[in-house]
Amino acid sequence: MMKMTELANKKVLVVGLGKSGFSVCRFLHSQSIAFDVVDEGLKDADVDKLNVFAPQANCSHEFTETLFCQYEILIMSPGIALSHSAVQSALQKGAQAIGDIELFAYAVDAPVLAVTGSNGKSTVVAWLQAVLESAGVSAVACGNIGLPALDALQSGIDIYVVELSSFQLETTNSLKLLSASVLNVSEDHMNRYQDLEHYAATKRRIYRHAELAVCNAHDERTHVLATDESQAVSLTPPRILFAVDSVTQGDVGTRDYAGQTWLQWGEKRIMPVCELPLPGLHNCENAQAVLAMLSPLSLSAETLKAGLLSFKGLPHRTQFVHESQGVRWFNDSKGTNIDACCRAIEAMQAPVVLIAGGQGKDADFSQLGPVVQEHVKAIVLIGEDADVLNQALQDFAQITKAKTMLDAVTQAMRIATAGDVVLLSPACASFDMFDSFEHRGDVFVEAVMKVAA
Ligand code: ADP
């Protein structure tokens, strides 16, 4: 593992000056490590912000081989692919690419739990934090969830709970973890990976230095594989499996008692699934992952139950917004891929009018067909790839198109009748029409309040 003192003697380039890029700059500055910055869309305002604390850093917007090859360490923003030609040229000349999480690994001095997966990461991370806090353990949730991990470093923290994307894992090599989970693997980001297995193997890098692996019993791609390149450096960690439908010795699952399904952890009965504060089977899985991730702490069943109940859920994830005239409105703006959208639809347990669309990331939307056919009475499509979704889904539901979110909500309002749910779960990224999934969700809620309240 590289040490901070070694970094100080190298030529360091921070690649990408977004939120995490800024956290890297602040951290390097705090460690007296010199660096330069490159960002294709560099803004004057960002340069000014950087100059306040690091006036000596050279800022460039030139993504060129000539520039990159002058550096020995590239600290990559997760948004920039390692396959970029300028990055590849520098790597071939012997440069090393790391990310903000690798720097965090060098610096952190408390136990770390980390979660990755295609869906459910933020929910599990926030839920872990809630359970820990309710048990009197001081915990901070950071990483891909929003607060950059390097900005979260502070004294007095008992445990760090880190959300990691596959992009971050590409540039993370030495993060030691008390427990780690790949929650699930489903198609996403196919514009950045060769295939699903390549994407899954990148996620499994999280197990590299983990003392405990928490894996999804029904998703073998989440299991630690002895053949993974990432396992070559460490022994295969012990594992706990979670499963929504059964339980095996020592694992987390469910068991029926007197006609009621309970969350079960080995021989420990935790609580009835129907009392979980978040809807849907996917959230039962998320709760199970939380329990399994916390097993090294040996918390009691009562403490775990109280902790699980203390969580109110995150906005934009199958979040109840409003009910009027018997129609319930849900915001699942964070449903940015096919599996998330399917799980959100299933969680509604009612006929669904679906608002979907945006940037499709080259996904195969025909996979939505069966769930749409079973639960969705109509779809209102928005965004750049509306035609792609229309093509894939026209045989499964009535489809209309809308130019704006307000238009989509107005159309959905016209279609829905008492007992229906209107669900925004786009199965797509938001950046064609919005700044972020949060912005998209906020605009949806605003439109619902205008049209349906
Ligand atoms: P992530 O951080 O991985 O994007 P979130 O917790 O923010 O995950 O949830 C995003 C969306 O994924 C939710 O809005 C919901 O539609 C869906 N989802 C949540 N948990 C799961 C799960 N365990 N399996 C499948 N889909 C899920």
Structural summary, described in words:
With 453 residues, this protein is of the alpha/beta class. It has 17 helices and 20 strands. The termini are far apart. The model has no long low-confidence stretch (mean pLDDT 94). The structure holds adenosine-5'-diphosphate. The site of adenosine-5'-diphosphate has 21 residues, from helix 7, helix 11 and helix 13. Adenosine-5'-diphosphate (ADP) binds next to helix 7, helix 11 and helix 13.
Q: Characterize the main sheet.
A: 6 strands, parallel
Query: Regarding quaternary structure, how should these chains be classified?
Result: single chain
> What average pLDDT do the residues reach?
94
Helix content: 25-40%
Kindly estimate the percentage of residues that lie in beta strands according to DSSP: 15-25%
Strand order of the largest sheet: 7-8-6-9-10-11
Q: Tally the helices.
A: 17
The distinct ligands, each listed once, are: adenosine-5'-diphosphate
Contiguous uncertain segments of 5+ residues: none
What separation lies between the terminal Cα atoms? 57 Å
